[in-house]
Amino acid sequence: MSEYIVVFITAPDEKSAQNIARLLVEEKLAGCVNIIKNIRSIYFWQDKIEDESEVLMVVKTKRELFKALKDKVRTVHPYSVPEIIAIPIIEGSEDYLKWLDEVTAS
Length: 106
Hints:
Blueprint: E1 4-11, H1 14-26, E2 32-45, E3 48-62, H2 66-76, E4 84-88, H3 94-103
Antiparallel strand pairs: 1-3, 1-4, 2-3
């Protein structure tokens, strides 16, 4: 059985997030991507504190696909250093995880 992960990716706007999400699903690197609008990110960048509006993508996929997913995102993401972080799914609905297996690359 596969190991499953959730990947968080931030983007500057909904259009960028939609493009990235669609690409990941089309290429079977993700089964589903939720886009959450209107998040606020406060972070340190280039010697100053930034306070920006962003959108968050919540990507459901398999751990074995993370490297390919990360590489794909980096080729199309508008940020020079995009946030692409993964956390493990410890438990999940068996039906959902079976579906995730079926719709992502093997």
